[in-house]
Amino acid sequence: MLVAITRAVSPAMNHCELTHLPRTEIGILKVAEQHRRYEAYLAGLGATVISLAAEPELPDSVFVEDPAVVEDEVAIMTRMGAESRRKETESLAQVLARFRPLRWLREPATLEGGDVMRVGAKLFVGLSARTNATGIAQLAFELKPYGYSVEAVEVLGCLHLKSACSYVGSRTILANRAMIDTVPFHGFDLVGVPEDEPRA
C-alpha cells in the first residue's frame, strides 16, 4: 500500500523561515488550494493520503519532507537546522511510527530532508546551512545496517541540495552547477539548467 503523509498549510506561513529569498506576501488561500490539488493528485495515483492538521504555530510545517528521512526499513527523525522548526517532528513521528521503526538524530547533528537525494541504495546529502557534517555522519550510521551508503555534497548558493538538483532516473541528474559541488556525482549524466532560469 502506497501511503503519502501530508500536512495542511499553516495559517502563519507568511512568517516562515527565509534564507536565500526576499520576503514577499504569500497568498494563504491560494497555497491551501494548491496543496488540496496536490493531495488529490496523490490520491489519484493510488496513494492513501494521511493529511495532518495544520500547525498554526509552525509556519513551515507543510514541508513534511524535512523532519524525516523515510526509507523502506526505517524512518530517521531529523534534528532540523532551523531551531524554529524542530517541534514539527513530534506529530509527524507519531504517524510515522505506525509504518516504520524510528531512529532519532542527536545534538549537535542538524539535518533536513530537503538535503537528501536518494539514488537506489545511495543517499547524497547536502552539506548546507541546515545540514551539518555530524548530521550526515549520524544518518550514515543509522542507515548502514540496511545497506545504504551516504555521501556528502557541498551546497554553495541555495537552501537545500534538492533546491539545486533532482535525480530524474537513468543515472541522470538535473543540476544547477553553480549551487553545488558536482564532484560527488562522477559517473552520472548532469543536465544543466539554463543560466537565466537558475531555479529550474
Describe the structure.
With 200 residues, the protein is α/β, with parallel strands linked by helices. The chain is 18% helix and 24% strand. The chain contains three helices and eleven strands, in the order βαβββαβββαββββ. It has helices spanning 28-44, 89-96, 133-143, and strands spanning 3-7, 48-52, 68-70, 75-77, 102-104, 116-119, 122-127, 149-154, 165-169, 172-175, 189-192. The strands form four sheets. A three-stranded mixed sheet has the order 3-4-5, with helices on one face. The longest helix has 17 residues, at 28-44. The protein is globular. The mean pLDDT is 96.
Cα-atom Rg, whole angstroms?
A: 17 Å
Total beta-strand segments: 11
Name the shape in a single word: globular
Could you give a short account of the major beta sheet? 3 strands, mixed
Residue runs with pLDDT of under 50 for 5 or more positions: none
**Helix fraction by DSSP (H/I, runs of at least 4):** 10-25%
Order of helices and strands: EHEEEHEEEHEEEE
Mean pLDDT, to the nearest integer, reads 96
Total helical elements: 3
Secondary-structure class: alpha/beta
**C-alpha termini separation:** 32 Å
Biggest sheet strand line-up? 3-4-5
In terms of DSSP E residues, the strand content is 15-25%
